[in-house]
Structures are given as structure tokens and as C-alpha cells.
Amino acid sequence: MKGFFLTLEGLDGSGKTTQARLLAQFLEEKGIKVRLTREPGGGLPGVRDLLLKGEALSPEAEYLLFSADRAEHVRKVIFPALEEGFWVISDRYLDSSLAYQGYGRGLPLSWLLQVAKEVTLGLQPHLTFLLDLPPEEALKRVSTPDRLEKAGLEFFKRVRQGYLELAAREPGRFLVVDATRPVDEVQTTIRESILKLFP
Ligand code: TYD
Questions:
Q1: What is the pLDDT of residues 157-173, one digit of tens each?
Q2: Best mutation site among 16, 48, 129, 148 for ligand 1, i.e. most ligand atoms within 8 A of its Cβ?
Q3: Ligand 1 centroid from CA 92, angstroms
Q4: Domain named Thymidylate kinase-like: which ranges (predicted)?
Q5: Fewer Cβ neighbours under 10 Å: the N or C end of the chain?
Q6: Quick check: CB of 137 below 6 Å from ligand 1?
Q7: Count of domains forming the chain
Q8: What's the N-to-C CA distance of the chain in angstroms?
Q9: Is there a binding annotation on residue 16?
Q10: What angle do CA 170, 112, 59 make, to 5 degrees?
């Protein structure tokens, strides 16, 4: 595999989407081929509405829908781009499911990981930026909450804690960034970390 697989994770409102876009711009200016993508919806676009606007689903159904999208995303978008030497930047990936459906909704991580092994073909990001934000701040920043965001503060607290635990378990892959700082400062930190890895 020739490319590089990078993901951005964090609570809703943490600024992932803005940071992903700025990072893609920076890399493209350096002559790197970039494929910017996202979950949910990167593989099966219709899944977004079903998950975020539809009726409340069981956590199991929710996870399997995110997984169906991810299976398509990995096979049709991420792997082909990596094979062609692109840097793939995904706004959310498997860690979102572990944090939201695992820590947030209480599904056993062992089951999530078992399913994920087949779904992702074992593909792990080379690098993951966790944009860390207190849940109170995250909720304040979300203007029109979708169904998952309506789950409220206690849910967000569990998700944040989950993300921090995931990051602590894999310090070689995760970089935790303080997302309460201004957009340009967060972006500078992200760029500097990448330049350290690829001087
Ligand atoms: P996203 O579109 O990234 O929303 P935002 O831009 O507000 O962060 O994600 C939509 C929601 O889907 C978000 O609340 C997180 C949730 N989600 C999961 O619960 N599990 C998953 O596996 C993924 C990919 C997203």
C-alpha cells in the first residue's frame, strides 16, 4: 500500500470537518495527492439520513448500519485511493463507533471489534487526531442537534471518556489535540505533528 491513512475523531462540534479541509489544502499545496472523505455516508450515502434523521434505532442496528457504510467505504473509496498513492483523510472512522456505540451506548467493545475486523479488512489508520473537547463545550457548539446529539450531556461524557481511553491504549497512533483553542492554532498543531513525522 502506497498511501497514508489519516483520520480525525472527536465529539460533534469539535471542528473535525474544518480541520480536515484545512489539512487537505496544506497537503495538496505540498504536492501530495489527497482524498478527503467522511463517515457516515462515505460508502453508502443514504445511510446518513437513516442514522441521523430517522427514528431511534437499537444500538445494535445503529452499529450495523455504520458498519455497512464503512464496509463500502473501505472497499470502494479508501483502499483504492491508498493503492493509488493518495493520502486519505477521513472525517470519522471506526473509532467513532467504538466511542459512540461502545462507550456511549454500552455495546461490548469485543463484539464491535469482532465485526469491525471483517468490515474494515483489518485496515487501521496510520495516524488519528483526536480533537478533544469538554462535552459541555461540544453541546454548546452544536446548533441543530441531530438524533445522536440529542442523546445529551451524559452520553457525550461517556463518548469523550471513551475516546480518551482509546487514545491512551494506542499512543503511537493517536495524537490528542486540545480543540478548545482557535481553529488556526489547532491546525498549526496538526501540521506540525505531520511535519515531525514527514520532515
Ligand atoms: P458527523 O457527520 O461527523 O457529525 P458532526 O459533523 O456533527 O460531528 O457524524 C454524525 C454523527 O454520527 C455524530 O453524532 C457521530 C455519529 N457516529 C456514530 O455514532 N458512530 C459512527 O461510527 C460514526 C461514523 C458516526
A1: 999 999 999 999 999 99
A2: 148
A3: 7
A4: 8-190
A5: C
A6: no
A7: 1
A8: 21
A9: yes
A10: 125
